[in-house]
Amino acid sequence: MSGLRLANLVRRYAGFTAVDDLSLEVGNGEFVTLLGPSGCGKTTTLRMVAGFIAPDGGDIWFDGRRMNDVPAHRRNTAMVFQSYALFPHMTVVENVAFGLRMRKLPMAQQSQRINQALEMVSLRGLEKRRPGQLSGGQQQRVALARAIVTQPDILLCDEPLSNLDAKLREKVRLEIRELQRRLGITTLYVTHDQAEALAISDRIVVMNGGRIEQVGDPNFIYRSPRTSFVADFLGAANIVAARAIGNGVMESPVGQFKIECEPSMIAGNVKLSWRPEDMMIATNASGNVTGARVRNVIFRGNLTELVVEKANQVLRAHVDSDFRASEGDTLDFTVAENRIRIIE
Predict the structure, then answer these.
(1) CA distance 282 to 295
(2) Sign of CA dihedral 227, 228, 233, 236
(3) CA angle (197 as vertex; 135, 178 as ends), nearest 5
(4) Residue 139 and residue 273: Cα distance in Å, rounded?
(5) How is the beta sheet containing 279-281 ordered, strand by strand?
């Protein structure tokens, strides 16, 4: 399987820079997700890798081979689209076989590959149905089978689950991940869904305004966001302004915090960030955030979200679903020092 290297990619549209000096390496067999809001450049990047659009600057390399001038049909990539892009007049088998027929593979080889692909995505028995006779999840599996049956070097996925309902989306994303691991295909996956990116990625590339904000494995990028954008986009985050007062102690409008960092590296004004689940109900008067007034209590099934206010700063806390609180209550919270991060 091919590795992928993007070097200083640029793509402009009529005075607008969609992708701005983007560099990224994806290892052989790695599953990397481009995550970001609409318009951040993630789909444009994917389409440049596929060869559908040409970069205005920079280079695209597959396993050490420069691909800028190689047409899309010779790149041996496969794309899974948001809209499935199935032929409505064709059966499941005909849709899956389409790419193989374009490559003029022998019929016996086509049949073997098609059967293997259908088995992998659990579509046996549905071979003669047309897309209109399938559920959304089944249609997405057909699209996935059509992609993997060509045995691509690189699999490209553009928001492939966004048309599915929440429960089915969770099921299919795990199927995609398991299939990718089994086949060992180098995969570049685009989504705006943070939970999806955290659940299936080897690494996440957070994009904003055509640039990369941060790259890392899901646990690191969630726990150690580098910027306010990453902290806020990749799950809920509490972000407060603070000032270093010495010995790793930070003073903010909502309270004082000691952080797990080399004190000599901290000076002046900074921003602190921590996750809602890191705000624990204080059992005594030693909490970091004391006297926070409850504005909203939101029951979420497995937890209760508290929206609280202190010194005109709104914070969010995730507590046990059995915890009882009412609007107007005053609560104290503790945030462990190893959960607090300094961000840009």
Answers:
(1) 18
(2) positive
(3) 60
(4) 41
(5) 279-281, 330-335, 289-299, 303-310, 313-320
Model pTM score: 0.91
125: left (phi over 0), alpha (psi -120 to 50) or beta: left
Task: Tell me which long-range contacts 148-151 makes (C-beta under 8 A, separation of at least 24).
Answer: 148/78, 148/117, 148/120, 148/121, 148/179, 148/183, 148/185, 149/96, 149/97, 149/99, 149/100, 149/113, 149/114, 149/116, 149/117, 150/76, 150/78, 150/99, 150/100, 150/103, 151/113
Q: How far apart are CA 94 and CA 103, in angstroms?
A: 14
**What CA–CA distance (Å, rounded) separates 274 from 277?**
8
Give me the residue label for tokens 């022998």.
Answer: 106
Q: Could you tell me the two tokens for 332?
A: 């104290």
pLDDT tens digit sequence for 278-292: 999 997 766 889 999
Instruction: For residue 266, give both structure tokens.
Output: 């901290």
Q: Which tens digit of pLDDT belongs to each residue from 289-327?
A: 999 999 999 999 999 999 999 999 999 999 999 999 999
pLDDT for 133 equals 93
Structure tokens at 198: 């955290």
In this structure, are residues 194 and 35 in contact, taking their beta carbons and an 8 Å threshold? yes
Rounded Cα gap, residues 159 and 190, in angstroms: 5
Amino acid letter at 166?
A
CA pair distance 60, 167, nearest whole angstrom: 36
Distance CA 33, CA 27 (A): 13
**Beta-strand relationship, 65-66 and 16-26:** unpaired
Place of tokens 């059967």: 115
The predicted structure's pLDDT at residue 344? 87
How far apart CA 187 and CA 33 sit, in angstroms, is 8
Residue 217 identity: D
pLDDT at 93: 92
pLDDT in tens, 204-220: 999 999 999 999 999 99
